[in-house]
Design brief:
It contains seven helices and eight strands. It is α/β, with parallel strands linked by helices.
């Protein structure tokens, strides 16, 4: 159901949103050797203009939450491309998840991450993140669970700072992401998001071939 308080979508398409986001990110002071990591697939057309504006490399960050069995939306950890992993040991203990179960779920999700990375990047090694300004982008954030998992996973990467940049996110989610990241850029933060697609005039599915093309061009 559309938001009746908004007369028209905020962005023409992902390319338009990416260009506007690029202006906002480029205005951030003190970026050090920046790199843009896009959550595939929808985040890649957003990240491409940001990377071009900064003169920074563009790569994908494939993230998989480790869901508590029976409550999969509740993340007890996350794994991401580059061999990054984080576990919420306190939550695992409270939920009573056995170590063997955690290990099994982690192996399954790490295999899925590797498969998706090969699909987009082939056999290229992961980019170094240590001591860099790492900018994580997506085309929008609703509940924020995947983006929060991405930030948590990247905390072990040695990045100088973690910046999350998105065109639109629910206001409550913005507050959570701002608390979790070092800096946060969001162009629109409605109290009622309804659906990310409603903020775009065109919100077509992004094909794997398009992701690969943008990564090669970046």
């Amino acid at each position: 159901m559309p938001d009746p308080t908004r007369a028209a979508p905020a962005f023409v398409d992902r390319a338009d949103a990416g260009r506007r986001l690029a202006d906002a990110v480029a205005a951030l002071p003190g970026l050090i050797d920046p790199i843009v990591l896009a959550l595939p697939r929808g985040g890649v057309p957003i990240g491409a203009p940001v990377a071009r504006r900064l003169g920074a490399p563009l790569d994908v960050l494939v993230v998989r939450k480790l869901g508590v069995p029976g409550h999969e939306e509740l993340a007890m950890g996350a794994v991401a491309s580059g061999g990054i992993a984080v576990l919420d040991e306190e939550l695992i203990a409270r939920a009573g998840v056995a170590p063997g179960t955690v290990a099994s779920i982690r192996r399954r999700e790490e295999a899925e991450v590797r498969a998706r990375v090969r699909r987009y990047r082939g056999e290229l090694p992961p980019p170094p993140l240590r001591d860099r300004s790492v900018i994580v982008v997506d085309d929008g954030v609703a509940t924020g669970s995947t983006m929060l998992a991405a930030v948590a996973a990247l905390r072990s990467s040695g990045a100088r700072e973690l910046i999350v940049a998105v065109p639109v996110a629910a206001a409550e989610t913005c507050r959570r992401i701002a608390d979790a990241s070092d800096r946060f850029v969001c162009l629109r933060a409605p109290e009622a998001l309804w659906a990310i697609s409603l903020w775009y005039e065109a919100f077509d599915q992004v094909a794997d071939d398009e992701v690969r093309r943008l990564l090669r061009a970046g």
